[in-house]
Amino acid sequence: MASPLEGGADALLLDLPRGPLQAYRARASFCWKELVLFLEGEDVLRLKKTIFSTLENDPLFARSHEEDISLDRYRELSFLRCKRIMEYNLLPLEDMVANPLWFQVFTNCLGMYDWSLAIRLLLNMVTFGLAIYNLGSERHLKYLPKIFNMEIFGCFAVTELSHGSNAKAIRTTAHYDPITQEFIIHSPDFEAAKFWVGNMGKTATHAVVFAQLYTPEGQCHGLHPFVVQIRNPKTLLPMPGVMIGDMGKKVGLNGIDNGFAMFHKVRIPRQDLLNRNGEVTLEGTYVTPFKDDRQRFGASLGTLSMGRVAIVGMSTVNLKLAVSIALRFSATRCQFGPSDEEEVPVLEYQMQQWRLLPYLAAVYALDHFSKSLFLDLVDLQQGLMGKDQSARQAELGREIHALVSASKPLASWTAQKGIQECREACGGHGYLAVNRLGDLRNDNDPNCTYEGDNNILLQQTSSYLLSLLASRIEQSPLKTVDFLEAYPEILGQRFSCPSINSCLDSSVPLAAYEWLVCYLLLESYQKLNEEKRSGRNDFEARNNSQVYYCRPLALAFLELTVVRRFHEYTHQPSVPPPLRAILGRLSALYALWTLSQHMALLYQAERRCGCPGGRDRPSR
Amino acid sequence: MASPLEGGADALLLDLPRGPLQAYRARASFCWKELVLFLEGEDVLRLKKTIFSTLENDPLFARSHEEDISLDRYRELSFLRCKRIMEYNLLPLEDMVANPLWFQVFTNCLGMYDWSLAIRLLLNMVTFGLAIYNLGSERHLKYLPKIFNMEIFGCFAVTELSHGSNAKAIRTTAHYDPITQEFIIHSPDFEAAKFWVGNMGKTATHAVVFAQLYTPEGQCHGLHPFVVQIRNPKTLLPMPGVMIGDMGKKVGLNGIDNGFAMFHKVRIPRQDLLNRNGEVTLEGTYVTPFKDDRQRFGASLGTLSMGRVAIVGMSTVNLKLAVSIALRFSATRCQFGPSDEEEVPVLEYQMQQWRLLPYLAAVYALDHFSKSLFLDLVDLQQGLMGKDQSARQAELGREIHALVSASKPLASWTAQKGIQECREACGGHGYLAVNRLGDLRNDNDPNCTYEGDNNILLQQTSSYLLSLLASRIEQSPLKTVDFLEAYPEILGQRFSCPSINSCLDSSVPLAAYEWLVCYLLLESYQKLNEEKRSGRNDFEARNNSQVYYCRPLALAFLELTVVRRFHEYTHQPSVPPPLRAILGRLSALYALWTLSQHMALLYQAERRCGCPGGRDRPSR
């Protein structure tokens, strides 16, 4: 099909080489260039081209049969590449500020090349840099230019050997000494060693270290962040009192030097407390703008949202790469056929389509969602920077936290399952390392557990939803939960669809999802109440309500949100008419497929819910 | 609990070291030594102890920080270890013949140490050696002692670059030259290169090569096996005309040197045709005991069953290792608690139990099934050796083929999902290479695709079941399908269970499974007929009936068989009374958990099947 594009975009999107995929490509019902342009926009395409050309033209980024590279060499290479990328300054700060989404594009492009590189860069610039910016004050701004010009290289140290998910239980201490006006950072024992910290193993010079802050009279004020120099930037030898090392080989992401550290009474200046949420005066008095410790703690960990949103993007990129590999293979690999002479591409088999095409649709739906969630977070971050104290800003924070806490699980699990399916769908060839599906799976894997374990994070989302039953909000800033206002009416509705064809629009599964979320919300509420009525404390009641209640509630809510956003995106008037059919089908396929995973629940609900008004209901 | 064992067994099972797991172990409701003794028997325990002691005491098997070992070195090491194991002769041939199951114990013990080692050994002794024994004749027996004393080292070459699952389409040729009385083995092009062959990359001296046999007048007689020397055993240099190489890094199993080979008019003696199923006379006349080509082809590939049964054992071992690691971690890792001071082991959380305990039950059920399937195959193999031409032997062959074809998928997928769950359930620690969950997953992964892709194999099982609808058999040798005789009555039954407690015996899910398999069998039959009635040929009709019909049919049938065998095993009178409760619970948990994955189907069936007699039914 001839390209309907203008000159500029056409030059960005070169024709694909004629090869064995040509036959399938010629059968497309739409112009792929038009689709790419609609999804990405010309500016983003230009940025991507710049990034990829830079990588292609610099031998440092050549993949020269690295299959048997040593751990040390891979870690060194990925650091050198990270430094080189910083030097190229491919995305100047002013462009990033003007177009925040470009930062996501930038890191995802690097991740398509190698996540070890991209994550090293993210850990330094965002996790470390943004933590200093968000948690510190004027006196810490001096660190920022040093991060950008690689004078210092940072890491972010919360997790300890024995505590990760339960961050409050972290045991590194920071005692204030008013005589020297220093904090003394100390690891009481090896179980309190900082653990898993990316960039720490070989390269980081500085760390944001979370430690329990003690004032001279002996009172503990809870977990606070400190900037601690851990290595001499010239020699990379550890600073006195810092015992530091690399954690060794991991299942994947081996270009990142995850490390551990123990601090033996390491003294740092008082000023290196990141004091946005809590400060110690020269004399040793603790001051905080927050009334309760819980609120302060929440604010200081809020900076983790950026990492979780980044993971949604990473997972989507991994799935995108895997699905592309598997579909291209399936279109060219022939096996069996109606006669012994004639073989057909495996993509023609219903089974192969059933295995792979839903993940193709998931890529588009999650890619759109990932961008929109990133922009929501930018909105929140701008409010933080502008010190917005409004009720909307607070409510936006809660809503985004609830979304992010289920987005990371949904995206990382969808990618995990999808990559596995792609690997198997490519048979033996999928098992050859050079075909990358193993690396994609192994590099995607930690997305399920780091920056908050998926199953633990989901509790944040379900808690948020349950809280809405108790105290209604007028309208949520992102409108993701507004439908819950009408939950009694929604639960009264019954699915009716005159024909299969009429189900092939995402509005149908969307309505079913609203019903499902309302149902699960009420079921979870009742289960929690039952548990409490039978004498269990809050901790036990919550734990016993996860498996069949709160966990599917959180996931279904997020699926609904992804489905809704992609439905609205693909049905907006600005969609070019030639693309409406294909985008509509992708939207319907994702929605129906993901809903179909709840079929047992829907049948069960129908049985239980003959009369939805007849059961235990919250009063508000 | 004091051990109730006699002296002999007690000496084999040493007390476990007192450590952090002690508290949980002390809470066991049964004596673990008694359980092990019941499951394994004293002789097997003695064999295991011999094998593990041998590995422990030989420095060649030391795992000395191999994490950063090169591919070449790992392949070399695993070959040296394989050779050493052959030299130890841990399982003398006469013991193996007297106790065939010991061979499974032997390979599984080696696999617990490292599958690369065990598979190298299996490929040489079983896949190569048994192929020669089963497919050849007297004149080939000379190879067998050479295999055992490592004079030659073998591999088994069926798969080509472009054809694996569709074995009939393999294109390597073997033309007979009556003048020199040789076959000329030839690869017409690179797509016909032998590919993926384990042991071929660096070490094998001989291969069983499958090639299309041509007699001098130019007629092709289909795929036949030949013994081809591919390397000089002294220098390991390739033989003239053989182009051979290593396939490079794989996702896992990197101690095995999978290889490729192209043959350029390589001449081998006429006698090296493995002639059990087809022979060429000196003059070049083709002779076969089989009437049709299909039957001959089936007989020559029948030897693959042993590999598939081995994979059921491998998958079970992998799951066993992963579940042990994850449960022990969960019992000692504490996180969160009812108060900030008190943390509880993560194993106490309902969520963690829900994630892991079903896989623990699956290990026991699959372990028992794996042994019983191995013994079934031994039964078949003994019939083959005795040239049993009875109807029972033929029927046993069909039944075992159907069982094996779904056993490999069920076991490998259960292990794949289970290891992934274990890896995630261990959080970050599960991602550290040294904790082995990554290697277990990566080494288990090919079990899903090699020796027959899982989804393709499942078609063999469903075809067998469907064939039973058309032509009944009096009684199947293993009685796995006898219940189908009563399918109209079974479909007329309705699930009724007075209380949840009464479901906690595996007889309840067992009955539900029988109903489910009958339902799916009828649904699949009807779907196939619909497809044919709407004008599709057999090939299309079969392809379009896999996703929601034949595939779940094959899996549900196999789950039923596993559940049935474990139910019978755990409920037999010889179970020691103190073990009845725990074994019964494992049986119920596995059965209910695996059945619960079909909940949507059961609800759906209930709706459709109000009157099961009212639909399209086969007449026999």
From TrEMBL, chains A, B:
SUPFAM superfamilies for the chain: Acyl-CoA dehydrogenase C-terminal domain-like, Acyl-CoA dehydrogenase NM domain-like
Reaction equations catalysed: a 2,3-saturated acyl-CoA + O2 = a (2E)-enoyl-CoA + H2O2; hexadecanedioyl-CoA + O2 = (2E)-hexadecenedioyl-CoA + H2O2; tetracosanoyl-CoA + O2 = (2E)-tetracosenoyl-CoA + H2O2; (2S)-pristanoyl-CoA + O2 = (2E)-pristenoyl-CoA + H2O2
Localisation: Peroxisome
GO cellular component terms attached to this protein's record: peroxisome
Domain Acyl-CoA oxidase C-alpha1: 302-466
GO molecular function: acyl-CoA oxidase activity; FAD binding
Active site residues according to the UniProt entry: 451
Function recorded in the entry: Oxidizes the CoA-esters of 2-methyl-branched fatty acids.
Protein name listed in UniProt: Acyl-coenzyme A oxidase
UniProt entry keywords in alphabetical sequence: FAD, Fatty acid metabolism, Flavoprotein, Lipid metabolism, Oxidoreductase, Peroxisome
Keyword Oxidoreductase appears in the UniProt entry: yes
Domain Acyl-CoA oxidase C-terminal: 507-605
PANTHER family linked to this entry: ELECTRON TRANSPORT OXIDOREDUCTASE, PEROXISOMAL ACYL-COENZYME A OXIDASE 3
Gene Ontology biological process: fatty acid beta-oxidation
Associated pathway: Lipid metabolism; peroxisomal fatty acid beta-oxidation
Required cofactor(s): FAD
Residues involved in FAD binding: 159, 198
Family of this protein: Belongs to the acyl-CoA oxidase family.
Keyword field contains Iron: no
